[in-house]
Amino acid sequence: MNFNFKPDKEAFEKDGYLLIKNVFSKEEIEQIRKDAYTSFEEDKKKNLTFRHASKMSNAVYAKGDILSKDHLRHVLLDERILYLVKTLLGNNPVYWGDSNYHFGTGFRGFHRDNIDRTDMTAPDWDGDYPIVRLAIYLQDHKNYSGGLKVRVGSHKNPSGKPVFIDSEEGDVAIWNLRTMHSGNAVRLKFFKNLSINKARREGWIPAFMKKDQQRERATLFMTFGLKSKHLDRYIEKHMLGREDVLGYLKASRFDPKVLDLAKEKNLEVLKLIPEYGSLE
Predict the structure, then answer these.
(1) Measured distance CA(238)–CA(252) in Å, rounded
(2) Domains of the chain from N-terminus onward
(3) Which of 123, 180, 240, 255 has the greatest number of C-beta atoms within 10 Å?
(4) Mean pLDDT of 214-234
């Protein structure tokens, strides 16, 4: 199948991230945005929505992965998304229930998403790390705050130069889980590419100096990978080793026929606990 974009695998492997332009049309993004709000209303009725008890975040979340959301699973299973991930990983990806969507401004600050985030002599840093996370931002972050920053090359180095990811409606950002990144990035009105690299300082910037969105920030995150020792360790330590993550998996209830649909798309879904992907 032909698509109107071609992911640059060489650039991704070199820099640890990639922005792919125009994966979706703006009309599709508007529909996904509506689907996300519809899904959130359904999750409210199921008592699955929550906020973190922190002044650092005003975001609202929903338990349960995107595959379990009737109105949103089409995004995770979209052939463009799977083609993008397969191209960058070099083979058909697997998925294990690690995805979510949320609204509002959440936590910020540079960090990594892998297990060994600071010790580069630890097992995560042995060879390539074939686990990636992608984000679909449902609003413009090329010109406004709320998007993503990464440190270039930090998937192979202790750090790297911070850059804004200039995502617009329809783009997809993807990064290696070892890449240092920061969400909810603040853009200044008069120096829009000036990166404030301390989360606390970003939080102190007054509203009149920021290029804030005129609409609520809405974002979808999805994680894919290849079967490997690194994925085994990520599943053991992160997915099965944290009660909050287990709560997401336990809330991910859906008709098992969905797993057949994923298989038809050459996406293997790992069922980490009995409750995942069950209606019982």
Answers:
(1) 17
(2) 9-269 (2.60.120.620)
(3) 180
(4) 96
